[in-house]
């Protein structure tokens, strides 16, 4: 049976029988209508998965309903099939809960993979990611679960959560050849109570490491570790979680999740043209780049590529260098094409009007005239190879 619910009215109808105290129905429906929560459907089973959107992140629209929509799965009767951790924040973010330094906490390693939500349907165990039943990570994780832990079943009424780690899913932290599911903890479907890994003795696989910190003050004082993202802190008094991320990880994560071909183009174009463009406002007129953005790029220094690839995943480094080489080759190809056309007019005696008529349909007629006027072609050629919009090398679901 396949659920085909695509209209908001149908989602509302589905949730009318939603009895568990996970979110308020009206809040969830409003969040969906505002574009803060996306609903996706299983291709075979009558299941829906709720996930907050990038718009929610941009608008900081963190209502309880939006925070709960982090892989929440329900069936077509409104029954909760899986309830993951709600969205939680870095300890220094505005929406993070206030935790007293003396509060007793549990601190575990913050793993750098994909969240896996274990759920059971018709006696079979599967894994979803927080926004999809059929993402590449979900399919891979379900395969690992079946092969390594074929007898595992979550306790009734409890959602078990794992980190999906395998080489092709590396973001920043290097786990080597590890291809496994690492137990993070669990959540009671009805109450939302968060359980530690010890509450799931049925799990025979790896678990997230516990760090030596008894209080929140201890957690904040932990020393940064090599090849690590940070820690997750569970306040045992309030049952709320926060993240403490290492600054070295944050810097690297920003690079891999924000670098796309357009960003690479910006760095190449600005560094190539810095000796030509002296008036900051001309970054906009000549290359279409905001002057403040150009200043930030120049502040990184001419060795920006080396900085970007340092201690990064090899796949990312290879992609970055290949993309940079490709863009440079495209730029020089445009330059060569303009030079070839201009050479045909050298000493021809033709007037500008005659040349204009002959090249009126040429895609680089503006560049040809710039060359005829002895203007530097770098800004034009770089602007001509501005890449189309595309996603960053790595993205978080």
TrEMBL record:
Q: Name one Pfam family in it.
A: RNA_lig_T4_1
| A molecular-function term among this protein's GO annotations | ligase activity
Asked whether the UniProt record includes Ligase among its keywords, one would answer yes
Task: Name the InterPro entries for this protein.
Answer: T4-Rnl1-like_N
**Key words, A-Z:** Ligase
Domain T4 RNA ligase 1-like N-terminal, chain residue ranges per copy: 69-191
What this protein is called in its record is: 2'-5' RNA ligase
In which organism is this protein found? Herbidospora galbida
């Amino acid at each position: 049976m396949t659920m085909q619910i695509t209209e908001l009215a149908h989602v509302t109808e589905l949730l009318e029988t939603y009895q568990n105290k996970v979110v308020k129905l009206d809040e969830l429906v409003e969040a969906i209508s505002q574009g803060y929560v996306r609903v996706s459907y299983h291709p075979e089973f009558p299941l829906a998965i709720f996930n907050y959107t990038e718009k929610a992140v941009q608008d900081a629209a963190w209502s309880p309903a939006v925070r709960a929509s982090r892989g929440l799965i329900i069936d077509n009767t409104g029954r909760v099939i899986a309830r993951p951790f709600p969205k939680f924040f870095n300890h220094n973010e505005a929406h993070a809960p206030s935790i007293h330094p003396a509060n007793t906490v549990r601190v575990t390693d913050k793993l750098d993979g994909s969240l896996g939500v274990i759920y059971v349907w018709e006696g079979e165990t599967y894994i979803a990611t927080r926004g999809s039943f059929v993402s590449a990570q979900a399919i891979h994780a379900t395969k690992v679960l079946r092969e390594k832990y074929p007898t595992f079943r979550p306790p009734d009424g409890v959602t078990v959560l794992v980190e999906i780690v395998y080489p092709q899913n590396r973001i920043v932290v290097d786990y080597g050849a590890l291809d496994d599911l690492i137990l993070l903890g669990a959540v009671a479907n009805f109450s939302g109570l968060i359980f530690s890994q010890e509450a799931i003795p049925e799990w025979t696989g790896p678990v997230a490491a516990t760090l030596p910190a008894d209080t929140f003050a201890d957690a904040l004082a932990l020393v940064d570790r090599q090849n690590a993202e940070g820690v997750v802190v569970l306040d045992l008094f309030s049952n709320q979680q926060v993240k403490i991320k290492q600054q070295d990880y944050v810097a690297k994560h920003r690079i891999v999740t924000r670098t796309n071909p357009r960003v690479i183009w910006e760095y190449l174009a600005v560094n190539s043209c810095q000796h030509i463009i002296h008036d900051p406002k001309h970054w906009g007129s000549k290359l279409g780049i905001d002057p403040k953005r150009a200043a930030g790029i120049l502040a990184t220094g001419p060795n920006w590529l080396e900085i970007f690839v340092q201690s990064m995943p090899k796949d990312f480094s290879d992609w970055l260098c290949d993309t940079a080489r490709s863009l440079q080759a495209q730029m020089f190809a445009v330059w060569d094409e303009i030079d070839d056309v201009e050479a045909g007019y050298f000493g021809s005696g033709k007037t500008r009007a005659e040349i204009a008529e002959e090249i009126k349909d040429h895609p680089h007629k503006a560049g040809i005239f710039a060359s005829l006027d002895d203007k530097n072609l770098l800004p034009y050629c770089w602007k001509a190879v501005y890449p189309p919009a595309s996603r960053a090398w790595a993205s978080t679901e």
